[in-house]
Amino acid sequence: MMLPAVTMLSAAVHGASPAEAGDAASGKAAAPVDKWQYNLFNPVPHASMREMSTDRPDQTESPYTVDAGHFQVEMDIAKGTFDIDRSNGGKVRSRTINFGSVNLKAGLLNNVDIQFVIDPYGNSRVEDRIARTVEKASGFGDVESRLKINLWGNDGGRTALAIMPFVKWPLPESGLRNGKTEGGVIIPLAIELPYGWSTALMTEFDFVRNDENGYDAEFVNSITFSHNIAGKLGGYFEFFSVTGSAPGFDWQGQLDVGFTYAVNDNAVLDLGCNFGVTKAAPDFNPFVGFSIRF
Asked: Per CATH, the architecture of 5-293 is what?
């Protein structure tokens, strides 16, 4: 989760109309804006929009929604996943590269947005150097629908909480897709800390199809800390973990680091890398991307 990008700038009168800004400057109390009147077809005025927040570049999701009637695009220009598995005396080298993975968001209500996560192109290669086999796959990946409901803190306060159910579409099986319906629920919490720091925590429950045509549960937990570095440049570090109910599931842990650059109030560039710290996790996962709001 990237916390609001423009917190690196003064937000004393952020979200106020010109008249309200004048009242603030003169010491008068500004009239509050009733943002609950807005929806997808009646957009929040630009002057009253909240600070931009994204579900990237870290793996911890944001509890903040896109303002009603507005849209946000969050994209991986490119990302890669690289791993060497030496378990049980083997040596399996895997590599997956994705281009253009995108999260398309639309603000439905003041505290609700809908999201479509699409992976338009992936290329994977798995080489077993002991068995001397190579498996390759490429093409269109998965599509996922998500609904984010902010419970509090969307437009102010030191904390914010949301709940986000999601479902993966059962597209036809391929080398990159299992062809099964899967889903779960994500619960992200953001907390403002002293000295310009902020943190976010996430708990996620996933239901994943297994080889017996049933489902196993996976449990995701993460925590991230972020701070401005200089001007519009920010950074974060994160710990991310996955465990599961499937027999023999090996706990996966990653240590992540990344940077963001706020081009303006509605556009952010980012890059970073996630590093595996347990044997079951991918060795490293570099990425570069951007987010833009309309």
From this structure: Beta Barrel (2.40)
